[in-house]
Design a protein that fits this description.
By secondary structure, this protein is mainly α. It is built from 4 helices and 2 strands.
């Protein structure tokens, strides 16, 4: 397991949660969870462009799509 200092350095230098996970040899949700715990303690980690939920990357475009589905009331949207 990486020390807190190693984790912070890797997180801040990375461009995605997947990159952090690869460098630390952990699963992406575990890396994201650790970052979340650190933020709750007041550590000012940067936000990543993707949010990893159960192994799936939620890109900003996909999040916008899901929000459009909600706003349009169309639960069967496939775009």
């Amino acid at each position: 397991m990486a020390t807190p200092e190693e984790f912070v350095r890797i997180w801040q230098a990375a461009s995605s949660v997947a990159e952090v996970a690869e460098k630390l040899h952990v699963k992406a949700p575990d890396a994201a969870s650790r970052a979340s715990r650190y933020r709750k303690k007041g550590i000012k980690l940067k936000m990543m462009p993707h949010v990893v939920v159960r192994g799936a990357a939620f890109t900003p475009d996909f999040i916008a799509h899901l929000n459009a589905v909600i706003e349009n009331g169309d639960s069967n949207a496939n775009s």
